[in-house]
């Protein structure tokens, strides 16, 4: 008996699932609430490990899997995903990647991976953009079988045998089912930044540990920094790599204004003030392309 799967959300999980369904000749339709050209073109880095690779191998054709491996580029080899711990004076305390249980992963830009996964689905006409999910209901088909109907804000509907929520943390389907697996963390605010930095800046910051994330703990604050290199030409060419960087600074909530982060006019200076006693090379947010721009209280799973 044939079945139809409705997938809500064309992020990484939904797009990869769509590839797997297509590979196994299972009927499906993938829905994405954003318009195709309106999707955020700047994504955070993600680290791909053995678990993710198993999923890619299961869902992608072998040739497509090989193409995926090429996206990591010459600087995208699988290295330790464990961070290097530093003190605020810039001294390396411990490289967790050298411990025997450290896992190996490789960095990749989230948008690059998402585009790679959605491309064949779009070409097959199996993804619809601009379709914001509203709710679902169980309906009885003419052959007296239960089916699920997905309703969208534009008034359109679709029916299938299986409904998959790949919407992310704030899933409307999870909300309708009654799941409440997110707990808001109020102890800290997190200031996030991303952008491009130079090889020279990365060398000064990380030294010989450029392939590992940086982690600093000090007085209940936490700094995280990681970088991902890509080449637009073969590595033997003289063109330097493009280095995408991600930085996160967590600050205790009680050290923010009583009215919250919205009261902070200059987020960059606020972060630097909290790092004023730190070695200058650790003050990553001071780099012109990496000013903190997105303070938030992140939910914890």
What topology does this entry show?
Blueprint: E1 4-8, H1 12-23, E2 27-31, E3 45-48, H2 50-59, H3 62-71, E4 79-80, E5 84-86, E6 92-95, E7 104-109, H4 110-123, E8 127-128, E9 133-140, E10 146-152, E11 157-160, E12 162-165, H5 172-177, E13 183-184, E14 188-197, H6 199-206, E15 214-218, E16 221-230, E17 242-252, H7 267-274, E18 294-296, E19 299-300
Parallel strand pairs: 1-2, 1-12, 2-8, 5-15
Antiparallel strand pairs: 3-7, 4-7, 5-6, 9-10, 10-11, 13-19, 14-17, 14-18, 15-16, 16-17
Description:
The protein has 301 residues and is α+β, with helices and mostly antiparallel strands. The chain is 23% helix and 32% strand. Strand 10 (146-152) and strand 11 form a beta hairpin. The longest helix is centred in the middle third of the chain and has 14 residues, at 110-123. 25% of the residues are buried. Residues 232-236 and 293-301 have low confidence and may be disordered.
Quick recap of the structure?
The chain is α+β, with helices and mostly antiparallel strands. 23% of the residues lie in helices and 32% in strands.
Sheet having the most strands: 7 strands, mixed
Query: What is the tally of beta strands?
Result: 19
Question: Judging from the principal axes of the Cα atoms, what is the shape?
Answer: globular
Q: Which class of secondary structure composition applies to the elements?
A: alpha+beta
Low-confidence stretches: 232-236, 293-301
Core attributes:
301 residues; alpha+beta; 7-stranded mixed beta sheet; 4-stranded parallel beta sheet; globular; 7 helices; disordered C terminus
């Amino acid at each position: 008996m044939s079945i139809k799967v409705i997938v809500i959300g064309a992020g990484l999980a939904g797009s990869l699932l769509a590839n797997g369904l297509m590979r196994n000749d299972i009927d499906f339709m993938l829905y994405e609430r954003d318009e195709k050209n309106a999707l955020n073109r700047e994504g955070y880095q993600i680290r791909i490990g053995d678990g993710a690779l198993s999923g890619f191998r299961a869902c992608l054709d072998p040739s497509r899997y090989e193409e995926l491996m090429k996206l990591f580029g010459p600087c995208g080899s699988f290295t330790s995903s464990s961070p290097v711990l530093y003190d605020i004076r810039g001294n390396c305390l411990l490289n967790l990647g050298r411990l025997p249980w450290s896992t190996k992963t490789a960095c990749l830009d989230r948008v690059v991976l998402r585009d790679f996964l959605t491309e064949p689905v779009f070409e097959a006409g199996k993804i619809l953009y601009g379709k914001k999910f509203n709710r679902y209901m169980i309906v009885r088909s003419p052959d007296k079988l239960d089916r699920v109907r997905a309703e969208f804000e534009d008034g359109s509907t679709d029916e299938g045998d299986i409904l998959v929520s790949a919407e992310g943390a704030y899933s409307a389907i999870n909300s309708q089912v009654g799941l409440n697996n997110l707990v808001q963390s109020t102890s800290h605010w997190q200031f996030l930044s991303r952008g491009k930095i130079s090889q020279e800046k990365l060398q000064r910051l990380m030294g010989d540990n450029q392939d590992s994330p940086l982690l600093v703990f000090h007085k209940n604050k936490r700094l995280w920094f990681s970088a991902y290199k890509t080449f637009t030409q073969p590595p033997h060419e003289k063109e330097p790599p493009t280095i995408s960087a991600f930085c996160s600074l967590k600050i205790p909530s009680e050290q923010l204004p009583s009215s919250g982060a919205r009261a902070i006019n200059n987020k960059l200076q606020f972060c630097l003030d909290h790092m004023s006693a730190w070695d200058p090379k650790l003050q990553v947010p001071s780099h012109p392309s990496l000013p903190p721009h997105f303070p938030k209280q992140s939910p914890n799973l």
